[in-house]
Amino acid sequence: MSFFRRRISPFFQAQRLLKIMKWSFKLLILILIMDTGYLIGIWPDWKLYDKGPIQSSNFIRQYVYDQHNSKDWPRLFWKPVSIDKISKNMIRAIIVAEDARFYDHSGIDLEALQAAMEYNLSEKRFIYGGSTISQQTVKNIFLSPSRNPLRKWHELWLTIGMEQNLSKRRILELYLNVAEFGRGIYGVEAAARHYWGISANQLSPQQAIQLAATLPSPVKNNPVTKTKPFQRRVKKISRYF
C-alpha cells in the first residue's frame, strides 16, 4: 500500500499544481477585467485638458485635504498661468532638469528609463525613476504619489492617451502649472512669487535653474533650505543650461 502511495503521489502533485495554475490564471483575468473597468472609469475627456483654464490636479486636491489635518502646513498657493506668461528660462530649465528628450519621445523615454535603472543598480538604491515630463504630468493630475505597480501601469496608459490628444506645448503648460515647488506651492507662478516676489515671466536663468533644482523633493530641497543635494543639482543643471 505504501509503495502504491509513493507511485501515485507525483500524479496528484501534478494535478494540484495544475489546479493552482488554473485558479491563478482565472484570478489574473479577473484582475485585468477589473483594472480595465477602473481605467475606463478614470479615463479623462481630453478635450477638457486640451485648451482653456488649467484645472486642479489630484495632488493639489490631496494637499488641500491634508492641510486641514496638518495645521502647521501653509495654505495652498497656486496661481495657474498661460505658458506665454512663463519665462523661457523656466521652460528651458525644466526640460534640462527633468526630460532632455521631451520633444523627441512619445511620452515614454526608454533610453532615460534604462539609464535610470542602471544608475539605481550601481548605487544599490532607488534614486531616479526615469519618468518623463508627460508621465509626471499624468501622475500629478490624475493619479497619486504611490509607487505600486498598478499605479505605474495606469500612468503608462494615461501618458499614451495624453500624448495622442494634447500637444507638447500644452503638456508642458500643464506640468509647469501643477508641479510642486515647496510645501503647498504649486506651479511656477506661485513659486516665483513665493521665493522672489516676481512673476513667472520675470524669472532669470539662475532663478529658473533653482526652481528646476527643487524637483523631485521640493519640500526638503528648495531656494530657502539650500541643502547640499539642492546645490549639487543647481550645479548639474547649470552645466547644460
Instruction: Please trace the helix and strand order, writing H or E for each element.
Output: HHHEHHHHHEEHHH
User: Which secondary-structure class do the elements indicate?
Assistant: mainly alpha
| Integer tally of domains | 2
Biggest sheet record:
3 strands, mixed
Helix percent reads 55-70%
Topology:
Layout (H helix, E strand, L loop, with lengths): L1 H41 L4 H4 L7 H12 L7 E2 L9 H11 L11 H14 L9 H10 L6 H17 L2 H11 L1 E3 L2 E2 L1 H9 L8 H9 L14 H12 L2
Parallel strand pairs: 1-3
Antiparallel strand pairs: 2-3
Helix pairs in contact: 4-10, 6-7, 6-8, 10-11
Outline of the structure:
The protein is mostly helical and 241 residues long.
Explain how this protein is built:
The chain is an all-alpha fold. It has two domains: 1-42; 43-239, Penicillin binding protein transpeptidase fold (Orthogonal Bundle), CATH 1.10.3810.10. 62% of the residues lie in helices and 3% in strands. The chain contains eleven helices and three strands, in the order αααβαααααββααα. The chain has helices spanning 2-42, 47-50, 58-69, 88-98, 110-123, 133-142, 149-165, 168-178, 188-196, 205-213, 228-239; strands spanning 77-78, 180-182, 185-186. It has a three-stranded mixed sheet with strand order 1-3-2, with helices on one face. It starts with a helix and ends with a helix. The mean pLDDT is 87.
